[in-house]
């Protein structure tokens, strides 16, 4: 392993974390690579290359941010998957595992190949002729004030039904904890090969989540009476005013490789985070209710609110 690619959160201060990595890389004679747009955010010794070259040139990627940054790192390497180590700078990440103080040991374990790989699937999507991938979900969302999303669902070429709702979310198993979950969808084990389609605020048509196998092909087609639709990929706007066309979606296994150093601890932390999502308390209110011992554990496991 000679080169590490850095994928930076677009707005957060990454100076401290990059400094830790830069000092480690200097001691171990490793090359650091970052995209040209981020060259002003890193030391001059970090090599800058065109964005599409980072994943190609690197042996592994270091994602510095939250889940959104991690998803971007996975997407950047989808044509040639590389191991991605997530360093936490977000609020409540479910994909990232490492806190900044743990980085030197984590990097040394990465170098010595003392880790396991968690393989992730993605959704390959043809959006009106444009190809995109999503590791969490792809969503068709109504523009505010413009009516409802009206579209039909076909599975393997057979018409299944229709939606009239605020949004339709198609998610992978890891994406089932995100937009789909907020819309009332089920939690799916990351070990499962499946796709979940969940409507948000359904008014008519299909009103429950549909769980499909990984081998079934999905087609969502806008109807003439539909409002203009925003197409989101992993929470990023891909198309902001679609009024016609279709989205074809298929499931691709082993599209992303996530580094896991302590899978059991990672799972326990995520269980704690999931349990906090359904509590109707602000973080400060929650801390007042917790026993002191549990509060110390929660403060250790979860970053402070921003």
From TrEMBL:
EC identifiers of the protein: 2.7.1.23
A Pfam family per the record: NAD_kinase
Main location: cytoplasm
One Gene Ontology term of the molecular function aspect: NAD+ kinase activity
Cofactor or coenzyme needed: a divalent metal cation
Active site residues per record: 67 (proton acceptor)
Stored InterPro entries: ATP-NAD_kinase_N, ATP-NAD_kinase_PpnK-typ_C, NAD/diacylglycerol_kinase_sf, NADK
Binding annotation for NAD(+): 67-68, 136-137, 164, 166, 174, 201
Catalytic activity: NAD(+) + ATP = ADP + NADP(+) + H(+)
Keyword annotations: ATP-binding, Cytoplasm, Kinase, NAD, NADP, Nucleotide-binding, Transferase
Subcellular location: Cytoplasm
Top-tier EC class: transferase
Function: Involved in the regulation of the intracellular balance of NAD and NADP, and is a key enzyme in the biosynthesis of NADP. Catalyzes specifically the phosphorylation on 2'-hydroxyl of the adenosine moiety of NAD to yield NADP.
PANTHER family: NAD KINASE
UniProt similarity note: Belongs to the NAD kinase family.
Name this polypeptide is given: NAD kinase
Native source species: Micromonospora luteifusca
Gene responsible for this protein: nadK
